[in-house]
Amino acid sequence: METRWLETFVAVADRRGFAAAAVELGVSQPTVSAQIAALEKEFGVALFDRDRRPIVLTDRGRALLVHAHAILGEIESARGNVSESGGRRRGEVRLGTYPSATAGYVPELLTAFRAVYPLIRVRLVELGGAHLHDAAIHGDVQLFLRQTTPPLSETVFRSHPMWREKFKVVTPAYHPLARSDEPLAPAQLLKHPLIMTGRYDTDGLQTHPLWFSLRQPPPLVYQVSNPQSLVALVGAGLGVGVTTQLAMDVSRTDNLHVRDIDHPDAVRDVRVWWPRQRRLPLPAQTLLQFMTDTAGVPYNTLDTRKEPRPA
Fold first, then answer.
1. What parts of the sequence cross the membrane (predicted)?
2. Mean pLDDT, rounded, of the chain
3. What CA–CA distance (Å, rounded) separates 266 from 264?
4. With contact defined as beta carbons under 8 Å apart, do 293 and 179 qualify?
5. Terminal CA-CA length for the chain
6. Pair type for strands 143-147 and 267-275
7. Which DSSP letter does residue 179 get?
8. φ, ψ for residue 156, nearest 5 deg
9. Whole-angstrom Cα distance, residue 7 to residue 257?
């Protein structure tokens, strides 16, 4: 079995297609097909369900993907260690993120990181927060940003705090709740249909101290992934928005009114997470160290002049 077969396998799994993987790898589609066929012959099993469109991994394929990421990660670490001895770190790291973090935090992070480590490529995988931990378990991402609620198992994941941001209430400028700039009593939220960013079931929402203190779940009418979708729905008068400061910072809020919530737990804590049982390759270790070095720094003021401690 050759390493390039595993690299091709991971590319097909990530891109969910032979043609897309060929473009990413810079080879012909017949080459990709031949390498996947060779890998399937090596293991004696089908790794992809070719009857589905786009193609999907079989159960055996999903099992191999975990090992493939681990093997390639070890090889990448070895390459990184050898390269570092020559003075430069290089390689690739897959970072999972969610829409408002992608828009509000990640551009500044990548700009600062690239200024220090230009030879390390960061591949972004944007998902809803509820799916990021699954992506990490399956090896699709090595690090991911996610809020702390609902909680993740500490036996499965390690994490480091990144930042805390306030919840915000968003209404049309003509809405009764827009008559004041003072923080809103949280009980007032229960009197209005709410629109929120994120994907949560009732039990998941109830784990957050704010909603738990109200002793009932919020009256949700819409849940969306993108902050701008929330802004559009609120602007159309379809409900009162509840989201975070970061989401508002990356959205246009013309003709809208934004105010705080008067509750000590009306905040979101965001952490960077990674699987506890999986050794991070050197590029991922380097990005993790860089992120934790700047944790708590406002996301629009990362200092590109700072040389982080070695990972």
1. none
2. 86
3. 6
4. no
5. 32
6. antiparallel
7. G
8. -100, -35
9. 49
Residue with tokens 């050759």: 2
Is there a contact between 279 and 73 (Cβ–Cβ < 8 Å)? yes
Gap between the Cα atoms of 48 and 28, Å rounded: 19
Return the pLDDT at 10. Answer: 87
Across the strands, what pairs with 124?
95
The three-state secondary structure class of 275 is strand
Provide the CB-side half-sphere exposure for 54 (13 A, CA): 11
Could you tell me the CA-to-CA distances from 225 to 87, 88, 141, 163, 192 in Å, in that order?
41, 38, 19, 20, 20
Shortest CA distance to 12 belongs to which of 26, 27, 28, 24? 24
CATH of 166-267 among 3.40.190.10, 1.20.1740.10, 1.10.1740.110, 3.30.470.20: 3.40.190.10
State residue 155's pLDDT score.
86
Helices vs strands, H then E, count in the chain = 12, 11
Check: CB of residue 283 under 8 Å from CB of residue 262.
Answer: no
> pLDDT tens digits, residue range 253-268?
999 999 999 999 999 8
Q: In this model, does residue 288 exceed pLDDT 80? A: yes
User: Distance between CA atoms of 230 and 211, rounded to whole angstroms?
Assistant: 20
Residue 46, classed as helix, strand or coil, is: coil
Cis peptide before 150 (omega within 30 of 0): yes
Can you give the pLDDT at residue 213?
Answer: 86
**Is 113 within 8 Å of 121 (Cβ atoms)?**
no
Enter the tokens of residue 195: 């629109």
Q: Which two tokens stand for residue 55?
A: 């193609």
Give the phi and the psi of residue 143 in degrees, each rounded to 5.
-130, 150
Strand, helix or coil for residue 251: coil
The helix or strand, by DSSP H or E, that contains position 180, with its residue range, turns out to be none
Q: Distance (Å, rounded) from C-alpha 214 to C-alpha 191?
A: 12
